[in-house]
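seq/struct pair 1
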Amino acid sequence: MKICLVCHKYDVALDDPCCYPLGFMYVSSTLKLQGHEVKVLNYNLWDYDFIEEVKDQDVVCFTGFEEFAKSIVRDATLCKEMGIWTVLGGALATYIPEVMGKYVDQIIVGEFEETSNIDDFPLPDYEGFGVEEYHKRHSLKYMGVLTSRGCPHSCTFCTQICKFRVRSLGKVFGEIEYYKRKYEIESIVFNDNTLNLSKSRFMKICNWMKGKDLEWGASIRCEPFDEEMVKAAKESNCNYFVVGVESFNQVKLDAMSKGIKAESIINTLDLLHKYDISYHSSILVGFENESYEDITTEISLIPRGYNVFPALVQPFVGTKDGKTRLITEEQEEFLDLEFGKYIEAHGMYQFPALKSCNERKEQRANDRCTLS
């Protein structure tokens, strides 16, 4: 069967560590393993004549969040006019199937491969999605790797369509070795929702990464996280963390069901400073019970010296928060503008320049010469 996967343009920079559509890449590789002829339209890299590209396809598949909805409806309508079967998966299909079902022929709720053993999945279809073109446009060759899917936590501002499952680390390490050998990558981004859910597993990953001549980054929680873990991360060439902070206020953390203590946040950020690992974090504001004064007060109380920026909680499909606000639209627009200025002024929410390992080594050598 001829199946076309349509990956609409993400609202992230092309060199963002999360630029690779790994979920859809897994769908592609699974379909190919089943014997289907798969075509990918990756609008993050190229533009297409949509009708010309899909006119000979048996099935056209879509995925994505609200930002893709208009494009999905438009393209699905064109497909129906041509008599092509349309399928939708992902967050839109899972959380508002009654809405999206009006525009596509088939809805897939949850994971495409949910009944399978996660270790049996083929590797994501980087080739089909144009990995070589990504590498040409990036200043550093890096790949995204998942050691797990989903998340066992239930933070009110977040949502998951995947049930929490972990891959065997042997499979993970084999995947990294394959990418290093085939693509000569210089960095790995662990795209798990949270890499440090288990200290022992985190330590095994760090210990394996030592001496691999690969920089790496990941998203982490502030619990569990201690000096042994940050030391292992530093020694294994970790260069960046996205840290789940969300608030320094314990009452608010509890209301968000974060399941962490405020003092753990300070401890985590202090450790990252001590071991000189770059990071960024955010505090979320604009919940339905927060006044404008509440928001400005919380922002003023962000501890100084930490790379933490304010952001309005977003009403993503499937989440509980952000759908209604106590502040006015004018106040929301003003805060959005001010937050942008805050981020720019503090150099925050900008991922580090993706320099090659050699460039980084040269910079460190130059720094040493300057200091001497």
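seq/struct pair 2
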Amino acid sequence: MLGVNNHRDTGPAWWAESQRDLLARLESTPAGLTSEQAEARLRLQGPNRLKRPVARGMLQVLAAQFKSPLVLILVFAAVISLATGELLDASIVLAIIAASALLSFTQEYRAGRAIERLLERIKLRAEVFRDGRIVDIDAEAIVPGDVLWLTAGSLVAADARVLEAQDFFVNEAVLTGETFPVEKRPGEVGAGAALAQRTNSVFLGTNVRSGTARAVVVATGKATVYGRIAERLALRAPETEFERGIRQFGTLLTQLMTLLVLGIFAANVAYARPVADSLLFALALALGMAPELLPAIISITLARGAQRMARAGVIVQRLAAMENFGAMDVVATDKTGTLTAGVIRLDDAVDAEGAPSAHVRELARSTPTCRRGCPTRSTSRSSPAMAPRSRARGKRWRRSPTTSSASG
């Protein structure tokens, strides 16, 4: 669920306008637009698509691997080792840094490219009235004033006002969280109606469950309800608990190393030791605290988890997300249908003793037809489920103003 039921629009209340006024304002008709009108509006207003987050380039992904305080500490250690002529130590530390960064970079860059290729392959199509006939077009070519032809299974490609409908039900769970389909029909609703109360409107991101309808497009792309919600959500990914813990550990380690360097350096200077030797000695002790293998161990462990997820068909774009996924104990959802099917299914019908009963199943099946009265035995006022079958034979049925019930 992306939105809430009390979502309010800041633009004109097009759901409250009369069809005549709305079509006049959009300069459209129930027969739709001409191809020339649609092309002109497309050039003026742009394609019907949501703003995608800008993909990070190769250098940006690589640079992001060196933002961790732990990695920066190791880089500092390698620089000091080079400055003091310890080429072997510097080479070992640099090799560890490179291996860790390369492993994380490879995983994240490949995942990012895979997601981009997947998005490029997903193309939404829609049926609209153009030049007086129904044509199938790319959803990005839809413009305000177009008239959509919606049938069972159609994905709604823009926010639109229903002009005609026949047994038309739409699933709006992505916006309102309501599992059951909502009936849509022509007409007008109040200007202050909440999103779930606009029974004359369909919205981008929803889908048609049954029926047919003709609807005039009012908003496309970022101007839709779905588009505004998606734009608010298109923020920088929050820092995970794992990343926060690593950052805080690196910061603490840096502070301890700084205090150690200053303390040892001050003590050596106080004892009249050479300044250069004192500084190198203090730095050597401080760098001894650096966990050289920790970044590599973290990257290898998370990468193995990402590979296991990949075998299950899941793309892991950020390695740090793997730790959060593994630490998950409880998944809480606010609406049925988010992770469940949202469909009621009969598991079994049992009697008062808990044994499977075909008779109780038959009574349950006939209950919907008895809402306005159902046949009952004329000789008994007791529940049909409790009446002996031998006594039920040959008895007449009569219409009753109330419905008999049975529990089992």
